Amino acid sequence: MRHPDGTHTRLAGPHPSGPADVVYDRDWKAGMRSSLRCAAVLLGLLLSVDWAAGSLTFWRGALWMAIALLLFLVLCPVRVSAGPGWLATRRLLRTRRVRTDLLIAARPLDGVAQRLVLRDALGSRVEIDPEVLPRNPGLWYLLDEGARASEAAGTLLCGTTALHRLARRVDHETALGVFRASGME
After folding, report:
1. What is the pTM of this model?
2. DSSP state letters, the chain
């Protein structure tokens, strides 16, 4: 809307996925630095051993760089972010997003690397490491808020037990953190 004095009026209101409402995994940068450091150390060791042996060539150096890059890609952490009504994971080339207010399933996958698989009514699927949630209360709060809305709406058909178990764990770890901070441990 334009006023006679030349100023514009903007309609105010919350944007459903505005940047102010987005919460990110706090430990992602440390994980990224750690994976870069591991790849760089491996590359340095491989190049220095090959150089000391006198067998370092351009092609062998390129091979060692490819191996270090492969290690980085394997160790590169997934970036988890959430906002009101959604949760997203971002890898190097792909971002996946689910609507937490439309969840239909939340299943834990046990194995070498534990995962929590979230599916929504729109067909989207996200896998996250359940350890990310206790370390990031903001992410957990937004996921829990959306899951409760899904449960109240009756769309969350599978996984309420797993989410309640995870909620108890997050509450327990948060309480322990409060006790440690206050010196009452």
Report:
1. 0.75
2. -B-TTS-B-------TT-GGG-EE-TTHHHHHHHHHHHHHHHHHHHHHHHHHHT---HHHHHHHHHHHHHHHHHHPPPEEEEETTEEEEE-SS-EEEEEGGGEEEEEEE-SSS-EEEEEETTS-EEEE-TTHHHH-HHHHHHHHHHHHHHHHHT---B-HHHHHHHHHHHHHHHHHHHHHHHT--
